[in-house]
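Subject: HAD hydrolase, subfamily IA

B.,
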Amino acid sequence: MPLHLSRAIFFLNPKSKPPIPMANLSSMASPSPKSRLRGVVFDMDGTLTVPVIDFPAMYRAVLGEEEYLRIRAENPSGIDILHHIENWSPEKQRKAYETIADYERQGLDRLQIMPGAAELCGFLDSKKIRRGLITRNVKDAVNLFHQRFGITFSPALSREFRPYKPDPAPLLHICSVWDVQPDEVMMVGDSLKDDVKCGKEAGAFTCLLDETGRYDSPRFANVDHKPDFKVSSLAEVHTILETHFHLSP
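Prediction pasted inline below.
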């Protein structure tokens, strides 16, 4: 979906005139006037929780080294492992899902909340802004997150909801449940290929969490979907919400 001029963000490199694909919070132009925001939808792994799953190792275990390298080279935004195995034979799929589930279980044992997540959720609650969650992890992982950290999201959609992201269907479903328009919602996540694509195709605002500066690499310069905002911490999301949006229940 094309980005409306009223919500376009220009990414400027102070050392040269040509624009660069993504930049830090401090270099972004504010939407004018402030857009209304009624809900925020979060990714879970790597966004609300500290990254603990070794995804490259998981992909290698599922695909094999040669196939992993080939697919990674063809997909600069990242590998969509769930989509890739959809057309495999039932037996091959079963083994792949078992491998994926094993890596996810290991991640649950080390589950930690992301710094700033509790504070951001508290801020949203104080403004009566809805909080939703979309993850490609399983429902058990979502339930454990809710129980362990005492923070709940509703709706909270796991990969049992089909089609899963990056398809926009989960986000559009949440908008329908909330009775809000997609352009009144922000999708926050750490993946260009899953979270940003899902949000952009639904028509929502998008915010990419990039703690390490991974997405500053030139290999992400020509991706199809670019975020409206890019931050290095959840604390910066708080700043974006107060600075660029009119927060309304």
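The first helix runs from residue 55 to 63.

T.
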